[in-house]
Amino acid sequence: MAFFSNLFTKKKNSTSVRSLTQLDFLEVDMHNHLLPGIDDGSTSVQQSLGFIKELNSLGFKKFICTPHIMDGVHPNTKFTIGQAHHALSEGLKKAGSDIEIFAAAEHMIDDGLHMLVQNNDLSLMPGGYVLIEMSYLSESKALFQTILNIQKLGYKPILAHPERYNYYHTNFGIYKQIKDAGCLLQLNLLSLSRYYGVDVKAIAMTLVKSGMYDFVGTDLHHEKHLQSLKNVVEKYPVREMLKSCNILNHTLMDHINTENGQHIIAG
Q1: How far apart, in Å, are the Cα atoms of 107 and each of 31, 121, 130?
Q2: 40 by DSSP, 3-state: which?
Q3: Which CATH superfamily is domain 18-257 in?
Q4: How far apart are the first and last CA of the chain?
Q5: Of 230, 187, 262, 254, which is closest to residue 53 (Cα–Cα)?
Q6: Rounded to an integer, what distance in angstroms lies between the CA atom of residue 92 and that of residue 254?
Q7: Per the confidence metrics, is the pTM higher than 0.85?
Q8: CB 73 within 8 A of CB 135
Q9: 16-44 pLDDT, tens per residue?
Q10: Model confidence over 187-204: pLDDT tens digits?
């Protein structure tokens, strides 16, 4: 119990002042794997609490947790996500933290997503956003139809980390086509560094300079991600770098407040 009671106690540290405020303009981390024990992210409530404390110190005030829904790999449902959300929410209460977390999902474009769309059973973010992703190995031929089908339900698709799809790196025009189709784009903060490789950083910076990104997320899974995020915050003027983009993270706060803090996919 001492862990929970002491976790969110303010402590002096050597982190620079810039680090403590660098990401506060974003307000909401809208892509992460903080829900414990249901995908390849956090493995326990205790680990999630540690991650949230550290991310909060970097400026994030609220968290929309987005575990994978992926056929045959992470077969999550609203029920499993709701259970993990409840467990982490209770852990935050025990720790004496008033930080709010919400839950949605990162939907892989696969046959399972097709069924979720057909049944109007998507795991939504506040504001009716739907986070989608593709395989890193091969382009999904269903991308544009999926975007359209989500829109027909009245929701707004967001493509997660487009800079990480290597098969698009030689066809920059595809990003404009995706945007023109009405799909928003989300940047992984680590892509501003060489964490995923030089090519990913190069595409990310080109998309940034072109003003193509709409949202930013940590996509945090584990301790290595956390330490690398701290390094990015220390080394890069993130807010200045993203001035060319109309980043919408802060608008999620309005949607959260409008929904009175109710979890949109509460199990």
Answers
A1: 12, 11, 8
A2: coil
A3: Metal-dependent hydrolases (3.20.20.140)
A4: 27
A5: 230
A6: 22
A7: yes
A8: no
A9: 444 555 899 999 999 999 999 999 999 99
A10: 999 999 999 999 999 999
The pair of structure tokens assigned to 70 is: 């992926």
Res. 13: pLDDT tops 80: no
| Over residues 103-123, mean pLDDT | 98
Q: In sequence order, what DSSP letters do the residues of 121-183 get, joined into one string?
A: ---PBTTTEEEEE--SSS--TTHHHHHHHHHHTT-EEEEE-GGG-GGGTT-THHHHHHHHTT-
Tokens describing residue 240:
């200045």
The answer to whether residue 105 scores a pLDDT higher than 60 is yes
Going from the C-alpha of 37 to that of each of 40, 175, 216, the distances in angstroms are 8, 33, 24
Report long-range pairs for 18-22 (Cβ below 8 Å, ≥24 apart).
18/233, 18/234, 19/57, 19/58, 19/230, 19/233, 19/234, 20/57, 20/58, 20/59, 21/59, 22/58, 22/59, 22/233, 22/238, 22/239
Residue 205 structure tokens: 């910076």
Question: Helix or strand or coil: residue 14?
Answer: coil
